[in-house]
Design brief:
Shape: globular
Order of helices and strands: HEEEHEHEH
CATH topology: HIT family, subunit A
Radius of gyration: 14 Å
Number of strands: 5
Length: 116
């Protein structure tokens, strides 16, 4: 079963919209002061499956997080499809990540790191 569909850690959810949830990543990358996951509330695999409203809500949540957590700058990525091509650990569930470096690790190592 998909870990984002089962939502086995609801205490990590910090915001919920009509189409998306935002939660703290249960396994944040080394060198981040903040690592959020934005994930679709339904099990979808591609942005092509999103309504115009859902697409807009995604970026509204990114902007909310920037204000809420006082983020001066960050990396925002989206993972979709087969994990062999995006390197993530969540299979076939559209989701994004907001990653804020903490300055202890070079930024290049955060955004281009190898998986353990």
């Amino acid at each position: 079963m998909c870990p984002l569909c089962t939502l086995d850690d609801p205490e990590r959810v910090v915001r919920e919209g009509r189409h998306w949830r935002v939660k703290h990543n249960r396994a944040p990358y080394k060198g981040l002061s903040l690592h959020l996951v934005i994930f679709a509330k339904t099990h979808i695999d591609s942005p092509a499956e999103l309504s115009v409203e859902a697409k807009a809500e995604y970026f509204d949540l990114v902007l909310w997080a920037q204000r809420e957590f006082n983020i001066p700058g960050c990396g925002v990525i989206m993972r979709l499809g087969d994990t062999r091509y995006h390197g993530g650990s969540i299979p076939e569930h559209l989701h994004g990540q907001i990653m804020v470096p903490d300055g202890t690790v070079p930024v290049e190592k955060i955004f281009y790191q190898e998986r353990a």
